[in-house]
């Protein structure tokens, strides 16, 4: 199976964003409606929630709502408020040795759902490089030019609450926070819709992994490796991947390059159709640069030199 990715600079959403939104509207609405979204929120309720919890984003939200026009469902979708439960994979680790600090992560998800876009934006005068995800503003992982990195994994529970998608929360953190301390405070006060983990790292080497979810108090840990469970493993696959990462980080002779190479091998690297490792990312906040990797390909980007263009990766025949 092949998938094409693009890297682009877009200071803020405009006509090109609207074209992309319209082209993916059906898929995006399907994501938002999902299964189990009983009693869906109104557009008014969505905006009120956004204004209450992330008021800095409201002018940008109003801007994209104006771009799509009088479309109640689109306005709900763009709010990211109360999305349906959708589990996904992912593994990530914090490296503090030579060549660090760095955050290395695999994003595992069905390829047809993963958006094709890596981007550099500048909504508030602070540049952000991120792996974007539909419908608007979503970030699967990213870094801002203050030197803060944030990356997510699924937390293991399908419980749903009245909150926001984690991908918008990561965008908010990268737009408004400068370091791990500020990001912890922000994430700890925001209502999240689903069980999620977020690993944070900044240019000083400060780091944290947060366990978030509806109906629970946020937990702030110094866990340097995170997969798809919180305090208790949710399955053998997640537990195995986390154990592998913790073992790697404990090896005295481990290097960053060796750690990255292991992310491209099983059991961290997945070739399952339902949870394919779509890409690997290596964020280096002290240097303001990131590499997105696939077997045989490294795509370098930085705030000083963001490589716009495209790349098509052949994943081969995926396993069921």
Q: Care to describe what's here?
A:
The protein is of the alpha+beta class and 320 residues long. It has a domain at 91-311: Penicillin V Acylase, Chain A (4-Layer Sandwich), CATH 3.60.60.10. The chain is built from 9 helices and 15 strands. It has helices at residues 15-23, 25-33, 43-53, 58-68, 72-79, 166-176, 180-189, 236-250, 256-263; strands at residues 2-9, 91-95, 102-109, 117-121, 128-133, 138-144, 148-154, 196-202, 207-212, 219-221, 225-226, 276-284, 289-294, 297-302, 309-314. The strands form 2 sheets. The protein has a 9-stranded mixed β-sheet, covered by helices on one side. A 6-stranded antiparallel β-sheet has the order 11-2-3-12-13-14, covered by helices on one side. β13 and β14 (297-302) form a beta hairpin. 44% of the residues are buried.
Keywords:
nine-stranded mixed sheet, alpha+beta, globular, 15 strands, 9 helices, Penicillin V Acylase, Chain A, six-stranded antiparallel sheet, 320 residues
Please outline the helices and strands:
Blueprint: E1 2-9, H1 15-23, H2 25-33, H3 43-53, H4 58-68, H5 72-79, E2 91-95, E3 102-109, E4 117-121, E5 128-133, E6 138-144, E7 148-154, H6 166-176, H7 180-189, E8 196-202, E9 207-212, E10 219-221, E11 225-226, H8 236-250, H9 256-263, E12 276-284, E13 289-294, E14 297-302, E15 309-314
Parallel strand pairs: 1-4
Antiparallel strand pairs: 1-15, 2-3, 2-11, 3-12, 4-5, 5-6, 6-7, 7-8, 8-9, 9-10, 12-13, 13-14
Helix pairs in contact: 3-5, 4-5, 6-7
The profile of the biggest β sheet is:
9 strands, mixed
CATH class division of the domain at 91-311: Alpha Beta
Radius of gyration: 18 Å
What pattern of helices and strands is seen along the backbone?
EHHHHHEEEEEEHHEEEEHHEEEE
Mean pLDDT: 95
Strand order of the largest sheet: 10-9-8-7-6-5-4-1-15
Net shape: globular
CATH architecture of the domain at 91-311: 4-Layer Sandwich
Number of helices, counting only DSSP H or I runs of 4 residues or more: 9
Structural class: alpha+beta
- CATH superfamily membership of the domain at 91-311: Penicillin V Acylase, Chain A
Summarize the amount of helix as a percent range.
25-40%
Number of DSSP-assigned strands: 15
Give the N-to-C terminal Cα separation: 13 Å
Uncertain stretches: none
Strand content: 25-35%
CATH topology of the domain at 91-311: Penicillin V Acylase, Chain A
